[in-house]
Design brief:
The chain is mainly α and 289 residues long. The protein folds into three domains: 2-51, no CATH class; 60-117, no CATH class; 142-281, Intergrase catalytic core (hpI Integrase, Chain A, Orthogonal Bundle). The protein is 53% helix and 11% strand. It contains twelve helices and five strands. The chain has helices at 31-51, 60-69, 76-92, 98-117, 142-151, 155-167, 171-174, 202-210, 218-232, 241-252, 257-264, 269-281, and strands at 2-7, 10-17, 20-25, 186-191, 194-199. It has a three-stranded antiparallel sheet with strand order 1-2-3, covered by helices on one side. A two-stranded antiparallel ribbon has the order 4-5. Helix 11 crosses helix 12. The longest helix is centred in the first third of the chain and has 21 residues, at 31-51. It is elongated.
């Protein structure tokens, strides 16, 4: 006999045989996930009662803390993302945004997989949905770019926004540029894809020639961008959309997608096509069949 119930928005599974009962937290508030893992956990609990052996089962809160504190050779940005997603999941469960939910599921799977490998939890079953994300298609119009370049403050951050658009670089790649990594027509950066070369066009070069290099934290970029976005009335606007607009405008100019892929630092042209195909479909001229 087994029963399912919720406590503090978390699902619990209770099984009973011959007067012996075991209750276990399923460590999720999402019923779709519960339906996936319930048969596996239920079987393990029945076997536990029959065999009389209780495996180690670290509570989710403690497991997450141990996972985040363990050595993973992560970049600082990777640890920041994992920490934010796991903490938000503990507080609110899965986010409504499909892309953020997919990211949360991938991080949860990584945490549980690590816990099972290190014998901190008895069972591990991958949660599906980690690849179900919606490709973001937001790009900025010429008027929006003009507004940003004219009105974003302070001036030093305004130049950072311009430089981001002129290079198509990720924020994490250019927040802290070292002088020794600045060449005449390129800079060496480290980011999501590791070390790469970012091409400097004339506009980007002019920004570097007339301004000091930046030493921004991720939090500063996020907060300063958010403040400006709200003040200027930019809707559904993210800093990363500057990078997408960079690639989109180059392709619209007729630049080969292979060239754009290299400028963006994508691992392959396939990645570039996947990101920009939804955008470019709308640019196809009218045709008759």
């Amino acid at each position: 006999m087994s029963s399912l119930y919720k406590k503090n928005d978390i699902y619990y599974l209770s099984v009973q045989i011959a007067g012996k009962r075991i209750t276990k937290s399923l460590r999720t508030a999402d019923f779709e996930t519960v339906k996936q893992i319930k048969p596996i956990i239920e079987k393990a609990l029945f076997l536990e009662i029959i065999d009389g052996v209780r495996p180690k089962n670290t509570p989710l809160t403690k497991l997450m803390k141990m996972y985040l504190e363990a050595e993973h050779s992560w970049k600082a940005s990777t640890k920041h993302i994992n920490t934010r997603l796991l903490n938000n999941y503990l507080k609110k469960g899965y986010p409504e945004n499909q892309t953020t939910k997919a990211m949360t599921i991938r991080v949860l799977n990584g945490c549980n997989r690590w816990g099972h490998k290190n014998k901190l939890i008895p069972n591990y079953e991958s949660i599906s949905g980690g690849n179900k994300y919606e490709a973001r298609t937001r790009v900025y119009s010429k008027d929006e770019l003009k507004l940003m370049f004219n009105k974003i403050t302070p001036h030093h951050f305004n130049m950072f926004v311009r430089f981001s658009y002129y290079t198509g670089a990720r924020s994490g790649e250019i927040r802290c540029i070292q002088k020794e990594n600045v060449k005449h027509d390129s800079i060496v950066v480290w980011g999501k894809s590791g070390k790469r070369i970012v091409k400097l066009n004339t506009q980007a070069r002019e920004v570097l020639d007339t301004n000091e290099l930046w030493e921004y934290t991720a939090n500063y970029v996020q907060l300063t961008w958010s403040r400006n976005r709200k003040r200027l009335g930019l809707h559904n606007a993210r800093f990363h959309d500057l990078r997408r607009t960079f690639g989109y405008n180059l392709i619209k100019q007729g630049r080969p997608i292979y060239e754009v892929s290299k400028l963006l630092g994508h691992s392959s042209v396939i990645t570039t096509e996947r990101h920009y195909a939804p955008l470019l479909t709308t640019e196809i001229e009218d045709f008759t069949l």
